[in-house]
């Protein structure tokens, strides 16, 4: 099955990687592996989910992360970030396991969420499976 991802989402992920490269300690075009969840959210997620995590509507509906009960399930949250959901792209292979861990833990403890069980890089690696490849 072929997955269509709007070009603005791909551009958002590309810009995020470039922004990381320009950050202190950036890896010259390659996303560094140690950024806070807040930084990753700002560079990767905020363009769609908004600075306040409340999502939005317009040409598409972007779900709110603010007080989102779906986030209570750590596995659901990791699967969503790793594999995408609806119009959201996957981040398996786009972000490192450490970065996914950081941003998932950040979102689940901010924006009105207080879910305290933590993702770990090891759990992310176990759940990740093969990296998805866009074949077009």
TrEMBL record:
<feature type="domain" description="Cytochrome c">
    <location>
        <begin position="32"/>
        <end position="111"/>
    </location>
</feature>
<keyword id="KW-0349">Heme</keyword>
<keyword id="KW-0479">Metal-binding</keyword>
<keyword id="KW-0732">Signal</keyword>
<dbReference type="InterPro" id="IPR036909">
    <property type="entry name" value="Cyt_c-like_dom_sf"/>
</dbReference>
<keyword id="KW-0249">Electron transport</keyword>
<dbReference type="InterPro" id="IPR009056">
    <property type="entry name" value="Cyt_c-like_dom"/>
</dbReference>
<keyword id="KW-0813">Transport</keyword>
<dbReference type="Pfam" id="PF13442">
    <property type="entry name" value="Cytochrome_CBB3"/>
</dbReference>
<dbReference type="InterPro" id="IPR008168">
    <property type="entry name" value="Cyt_C_IC"/>
</dbReference>
<protein>
    <submittedName>
        <fullName>Cytochrome c</fullName>
    </submittedName>
</protein>
<feature type="signal peptide">
    <location>
        <begin position="1"/>
        <end position="21"/>
    </location>
</feature>
<keyword id="KW-0408">Iron</keyword>
<dbReference type="InterPro" id="IPR051459">
    <property type="entry name" value="Cytochrome_c-type_DH"/>
</dbReference>
<keyword id="KW-0679">Respiratory chain</keyword>
